[in-house]
């Protein structure tokens, strides 16, 4: 599932290939990926692509019809298997392509999504504000002090806390596991029990892991590709994620997997010891 580094890679790709272009025609091939009525979406998503914003795993494409009208937005969430590409309009249509946003220059933005958990939504500035304010701070932008304060008193496992988009936006299963490994923290440790120094070290690990992954265009496990159709290259850098049974790159102990709220967590039982007694 795309997380912040993959979504940021898509945002940058769109900025490079589509910003400054005008959307002149929209075709929805499968309405399930549209939030709200598909015909309203087709009629409303028009105009010059002025800039591309991102918060957490959501991308907002800012559109303007002309200088007098306020901007409006196309919100894109990739879900599990969403792919955004920019291709020439005569490029053969791949199966599972659900939306085509035709640009004036003979190219188009295509949205493809095998499992159809992603969503495209047309929204006004205030609707976009509501969506973005429901998210916690964008993970790399959080300060040490804010991070320490946000963990205080939380009696939830740190792994679950990291995945809660209302607390911290952008981190998913891959980068949560990698950051906890880097900071030597067991995934079941209660968030509020981390000492300030541990919390700061985790916050820095989150930021470092995300930045390193962005630098390699994210991680492709199965479906994720960038705007040009290329996979991300960070997979080879993963230390624990989906490496259960392999030796820990730091100490050689076998990486383990545990299931928490239906999601797998991967960790080193020696580097990330579970604390005795009260977590
Ligand atoms: Zn280890």
Entry keywords:
single chain; 279 residues; alpha+beta; 9-stranded mixed sheet; two-stranded antiparallel sheet; 7 helices; 11 strands; binds zinc ion
Overview of the molecule:
By secondary structure, the chain is α+β, with helices and mostly antiparallel strands. Helices cover 27% and strands 24% of the residues. The chain has seven helices and eleven strands. The protein has helices at 4-18, 38-44, 125-133, 144-151, 158-163, 173-182, 196-215; strands spanning 22-28, 34-35, 47-55, 58-64, 72-77, 82-88, 97-103, 107-113, 119-123, 256-260, 263-267. The protein has a nine-stranded mixed sheet with strand order 2-9-5-4-3-1-7-8-6. A hairpin with a 2-residue loop joins strand 10 and strand 11. Helix 4 (144-151) crosses helix 7 and helix 6 crosses helix 7. It is elongated. The relative contact order is 0.15. Zinc ion is lined by residues 248, 250-251, 253, 268, 270-271.
């Amino acid at each position: 599932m795309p997380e912040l580094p993959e979504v940021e890679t898509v945002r940058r790709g769109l900025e490079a290939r589509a910003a400054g272009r005008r959307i002149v025609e929209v075709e929805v091939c499968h309405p399930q990926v549209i939030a709200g009525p598909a015909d309203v979406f087709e009629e409303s998503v028009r105009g010059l692509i002025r800039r591309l914003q991102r918060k957490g795993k959501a991308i907002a494409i800012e559109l303007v019809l002309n200088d007098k009208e306020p901007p409006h937005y196309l919100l894109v969430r990739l879900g599990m298997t969403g792919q955004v590409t920019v291709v020439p309009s005569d490029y053969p249509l791949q199966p599972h392509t659900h939306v085509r946003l035709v640009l004036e220059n003979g190219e188009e933005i295509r949205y493809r999504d095998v499992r159809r958990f992603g969503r495209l939504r047309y929204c006004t500035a205030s609707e976009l504000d509501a969506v973005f304010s429901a998210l916690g701070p964008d993970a790399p932008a959080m300060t040490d002090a804010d991070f320490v304060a946000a963990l205080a008193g939380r009696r939830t496992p740190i792994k679950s806390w990291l995945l809660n988009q209302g607390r911290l936006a952008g981190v998913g299963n891959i980068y949560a596991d990698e950051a906890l490994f880097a900071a030597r923290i067991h995934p079941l440790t209660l968030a509020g029990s981390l000492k300030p120094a541990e919390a700061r070290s985790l916050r820095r690990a989150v930021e470092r892991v995300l930045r390193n992954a962005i630098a390699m265009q994210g991680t492709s496990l199965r479906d994720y590709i960038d705007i040009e159709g290329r996979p991300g290259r960070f997979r080879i850098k993963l230390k624990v994620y989906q490496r259960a049974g392999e030796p820990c790159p730091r100490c050689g102990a076998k990486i383990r997997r545990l299931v928490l709220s239906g999601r797998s967590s991967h960790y080193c039982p020696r580097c990330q010891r579970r604390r005795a007694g009260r977590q």
